[in-house]
Amino acid sequence: MVRFGRIRFVALFMSLFVGLTLVSTDFAEARRGGSFGSRGTRTWQAPAPTRTAPNPNGPVERTMTPTPNTATRQPQTVGQQRPGLFNGFGGSLMRGLLVGGLIGMLLGYGFGGMAGALGFLVQLLLVGLIASFVIGWLRSRREPAAAGGAPYGGGFGHARNASEPEQRGRAGFTVPPIGGGAAAPATQDIQLDKADLDTFERRLAEVQKAFADEDHAALRRLSTPEMVSYFSEELADNAKRGLRNEVRDVHLVSADIAEAWREGDTDYATAAFGYESVDVMRDRATGAIVEGDDELTETTELWTFVRERGGDWKLSAIQEA
Hints:
Helix content: 25-40%
Domain Tim44-like: 178-320
Order of helices and strands: HEHHEEEHHHEEEEE
Keywords: Membrane, Transmembrane, Transmembrane helix
Region (Disordered): 34-82
Transmembrane segments: 93-111, 118-138
InterPro entries: NTF2-like_dom_sf, Tim44-like_dom
CATH class of the largest domain: Alpha Beta
């Protein structure tokens, strides 16, 4: 009995260990692609949908922007879904418990093994109790943490009057009418002109080229310090793995402005980009492709730009759409 108790303890320890390992894996994968950066006070709100990116999106996932307190949060909007209880830490822990149990079964202990059918039922009940506790704990933490705000009035599907013409920039860059709906606290909707749209289109190609060239000086000129830190981390990780990310032949297919607003002396604009590019990982020593295909692929992303009054637009966030 003593030996069996020790085996159960080891099996439970292995389950928790695997769960924590999966948490680390999820975090590592989120650094490549995903959603990162800052959108000012709207960081914790989902961007408005557009023709280019019509599907509901979530807030920025990885950011240095402090989480707003409960008093300043806005109610969660329709179509903006919170992560499920089996996503994030809870999902990783549950996967760890299940994987740990399977490992125990394969090794002849844990689920089943020495305790036979009765042991299997007892340990299954134990895992169920742990899962119930974890889910209840996560629910109690998540309930007051709903992020997001009121839908942006100038977004996709905004009803226009016959006397309110839709504005267009170059290359199908559509700008919705600004100022028709509720805005986040302490923000003011602003109007963009063709020069702004031209700048956003250039930034798309310039940032991609700077990243592919591993040009840190150019990245600092084109992006906020927060974005530079994320880019530098990924470039360092690629170098450590002996890889180089090649991005070329960037071509804008479609683009829309989801939101444009002002916070004090700072302007923000979130643009939805649909673009084609060749994006592959090459071995630094041999130049051989190790990830991706050497052909054009289409990508849809939301890029947020920021500028101080009278300054240049800089990239401040990227979100997959």
